[in-house]
Amino acid sequence: MLEIIDLHANIEDKEILKGLTLKINKGEVHSIMGPNGSGKSTLASILAGKEDYEITKGDILFNGESIMEMAPEERAQEGIFLAFQYPIEIPGVTNSYFLREALNSIRKSKGDKPLKPVEFVKIAKEKIKDLKMDESLLNRSLNEGFSGGEKKRNEILQMSILNPCMSILDETDSGLDIDALQIVANGVNANRGDDKSFLVITHYQRLLNYIVPDFVHVLVGGKIVKSGDKSLALELESKGYSWLEN
Amino acid sequence: MREELKIDNDQATKEMLESEEYKYGFTTDVDQEIFPKGLNEDIVRKISAKKNEPKWLLDFRLNAYKRWLRMEDPDWAKLKIDKIDYNEMSYFASPKKAPDSLDDIDPEILETYDKLGIPLEEQKMLEGVAVDAVFDSVSLVTTFKDKLAELGIIFCSFSEAVKDHEALVKKYLGKVIPANDNYFAALNAAVFTDGSFVYVPKGVRCPMELSTYFRINAENTGQFERTLIIADEGSYVSYLEGCTAPKRSESQLHAACVELLAHDDATIKYSTIQNWYPGDKNGKGGIYNFVTKRGNCVGKNSRISWTQVETGSAITWKYPSCILTGDNSVGEFYSVALTNNWQQADTGTKMIHLGKNTKSTIVSKGISAGQGQNTYRGLVKVGENAKDARNYTQCDSILIGDKCGAHTFPYIEIKNPSAQLEHEATTSKVGEDQIFYCQQRGMNEEDALSLIVNGFCKEVFKELPFEFAVEAERLLSVSLEGSVG
């Protein structure tokens, strides 16, 4: 589904990614762990198409096609979703309106008819119920005045409603208490399926107790230095990253 | 139900977002009577004669004209205005056939209003909205007049009001905006041609929105309309105006006056969607929109609320104001002003607190894009006797791109120490992060921008009657086109 090949990327002439290679197949859950500054969030932003980075080498294939020249919205329409580490506030725009605009943009790109407000609200309310979230979330201004936990939960709600095939979660667990963590993890697990893949970026092993990954990769200094199964996460938890850094 | 409506509103907006630039720029080919260019006493007399006006009204005009001759055009606004040659335009243009009823209206004109989305045949009309259609210098038709008359509500063109309700017009004309109030108000008083007149009797709540739709069609012609709305004791009326004009490379002048008067316990809500032709991308052409709007809350517990969405015009100079004379009266001003390309706007309000316990609220949202310059200018004045006056002002500006400007000039004059004033102001740029977030969810850059800006204006849009809120959102999106990338 997603194939990252020898990716090198700079920001303001500083090389952040130094030859990252990663392949995620349909239905797989991958986790990337790594210390601060190792390039985790850079990778997430580049996959989503943020323009602040200069890609000096390598390629990213999605369903076999390069997405390097695609605008962020085209990638989203193809099914790439990024749960932001710091979700953005848009005052005056309700969550519900924002999501319907988003969903209808995606539908339009596929030639589907836009959903009417009542149709959309029905879907949204079902998802909210599944995720055990509060319905009032829909009518609030997008992320405005949300607590850190609410913002993260809202990202998961958006993911659920937009129904992407490739979800990237950028440190969605940071700043969450254990209850919120569980809600987020349930959201991801509920969305797992044979044709859906996840890339879960995290600092901490604890999230992986709830979202059990098929593969764990360790990103250090802009490269994946070690890959393994979920036991690697436990090993990292006890040993830290330093044993991999040299 | 409320919720449902709101959601449908959103949907309607989305459906209407089909983009195009200024789509009201067409011209109607109609047989017109146009006065020769130029302004002099003779022209003033001719306008008055054309309308068979009583002598007192001619005197009102002549007096205003004489005062105007001695006045200088104002230069204090933050606007670059090319010198206007008042002798290079005509002051009266009217379709030749004066219609007696809808059946008599030139089909070309009916089609014009259809194209503008304002069908004049009552069966086709929006339910609950009565329309007065002003085409260049004359009012063509007023719909639902009979239905309103059953309640004693007068809603007609200004010319008709002079004929049929002369005493009322004479009693109130020029009482809120004196003929010599300012340069453009004096000009208007001298040469105004038509407009709307509304009177709502004691205790009557007007059951539908009243609206006037102004259309400039003729070339090299100024439009000078005059609107007068009187809400008698305990009455309520909500009034809307919409404006469009053809695309032309020459600028055209629109100098209107609107006077509102609210008696004890009366409420007037006045909403404007101003979409005059803004000029082309290089700043050529467009309407000069120099308008004086003022309401007087003469009665106790009265309320006047202005809501304006200003997206059109090359230059906007406009300060809808409230004089809070009656005790406990309330004045409100909610404004969205957008300037894109080379548009300029200097707009705001004046809240004059004279009565005790008077309250005013000002919410101004300025959007600047392209090379647009957007100025908020507002005065809050509290008189000696205005004990316990309160004002809240919120002034937000948003910038799109790096060639536009936003300016804020709040003036405050307080003569009573019990006054309480609050002022909040913000200026922000539309964040790249916000746009990227929307894009990541599947929207393109233009849709993202329009979503963000509409969110920014929400506080003002929610003050608009339902159908117009939809229209306002759509207009904003269209006006912003081409301002990203």
Structural notes for this entry:
The complex is a heterodimer of chains A (246) and B (485). Chain A is α/β, with parallel strands linked by helices. In chain A, 37% of the residues lie in helices and 29% in strands. Chain A has helices spanning 40-48, 72-78, 95-109, 117-130, 148-162, 178-191, 207-210, 230-239, 242-245, and strands spanning 2-11, 14-24, 29-33, 54-62, 65-66, 80-83, 90-94, 141-142, 166-170, 197-202, 215-220, 223-228. In chain A, the strands form three sheets. Chain A has a six-stranded mixed beta sheet, sandwiched between helices. In chain A, strands 2-1-4-5 form a four-stranded antiparallel beta sheet, with helices on one face. The relative contact order of chain A is 0.19. The mean pLDDT of chain A is 91. Chain B is α/β, with parallel strands linked by helices. Chain B is 24% helix and 34% strand. Chain B has helices spanning 2-16, 41-50, 55-69, 107-115, 145-149, 158-164, 166-172, 183-191, 432-440, 445-456, 458-461, 466-479; strands at 32-34, 93-95, 129-135, 138-142, 154-157, 196-200, 209-215, 226-231, 236-244, 251-254, 257-262, 267-274, 286-297, 303-310, 315-318, 321-324, 330-339, 344-353, 359-368, 373-382, 390-399, 405-414, 420-429. In chain B, strands 5, 6, 8, 10, 11, 13, 15, 16, 18, 20 and 22 form an eleven-stranded mixed beta sheet that branches. In chain B, strands 4-3-7-9-12-14-17-19-21-23 form a ten-stranded mixed beta sheet. In chain B, strands 1-2 form a two-stranded antiparallel sheet. The longest helix of chain B is centred in the N-terminal third of the chain and has 15 residues, at 2-16. The interface between A and B is medium-sized, with 40 and 29 residues.
